[in-house]
Amino acid sequence: MQQKAQQVEELKNQGNACVKSGNYGEAVLHYSHGIKLEPGNHLLYSNRSLAFLKLQQYYLALEDAKQSIKLQPNWPKGFFRKGEVEYQSGNCTLAIMSYKQALLLDPSNSEIQDALDRAKREAVKLRKELSREPWIFSAIGFVIGLCIVLADQYLTKEPSLKYIFAQLILMVVFGGGGFLCWKGYRYLQDSQRTTLLEAPVDLMEELDTKNEEETNTDKTPGNRPWKKGGIGAARQRYKQGKS
């Protein structure tokens, strides 16, 4: 038992050394080996969460942070790790909640307080951007519409937009188009932040399912969907002709 604990400690130290030297992939291997030997070690999950975060594997980093919290609910660093993952993936609101939880467990921790202040500043910055962006995109669309109107008036012999009302409608339409472009841009940004913390698609599981379906398919010659003009189709016609 003591030998096992010593081996786990050695693996943790090796992982820590790899993190310090920037070998995050190797650090993950050391921590994972230690977790296999001692699945209830919250420190190993916390450290591996940091290594995954450095590799920008946000989902895996978040899962390890959650597991660390599950194993040691009163340990502030578990919530701090969770907050770091959420902050780095652009989810400042979630990060603020995690940092606050960590600070409740360790009110005098300056590192957690600094991280909380940083996340709050970033959240304020994002709110300001959200309030400005619709106007900027709409203004760009309006200016494009105005340029089209001016080009129609001064660069063509017979302008298509002769009435001021039609010109205004065109500019408003382009302004609305700019607003819709902003909505699409914001949707993509929000989706990207959300998917960073979602589980990746298990390609091996899908492949196994596909192989299983193919195995269960009836492959008898009479039911096989032969390609037209292929050798299989020729053999099928030959057998049908003899019967």
Concise summary:
One of its GO terms (cellular component) is cytoplasm. The protein has 243 residues and is an all-alpha fold.
Structural commentary:
The protein is an all-alpha fold and about 240 residues long. The protein is about 80% helix and about 0% strand. The chain has helices at about 1-20, 25-35, 40-55, 60-70, 75-90, 90-105, 110-155, 165-195, 205-215, 230-240. Helix 2 (about 25-35) runs antiparallel to helix 3. The radius of gyration is 30 Å and the shape is elongated. The model is unreliable at about 225-235 and about 235-243 (pLDDT under 50). It is found in: Cytoplasm. One of its GO terms (cellular component) is cytoplasm. InterPro entries: TPR-like_helical_dom_sf, TPR_rpt.
Our measurement of the CA-to-CA distance between the termini, rounded to an integer number of angstroms, reads 74 Å
Please provide the count of β strands: 0
Biggest sheet, in brief? none
Order of helices and strands: HHHHHHHHHH
Q: Calculate the mean pLDDT score and round it.
A: 84
Key features of this structure:
243 residues; mainly alpha; 10 helices; 79% helix; 0% strand; transmembrane helix
How is this fold's topology laid out?
Blueprint: H1 2-21, H2 24-37, H3 42-54, H4 58-71, H5 76-88, H6 92-105, H7 110-154, H8 164-196, H9 203-216, H10 231-242
Helix pairs in contact: 1-2, 1-3, 2-3, 3-4, 3-5, 4-5, 5-6, 6-7, 7-8
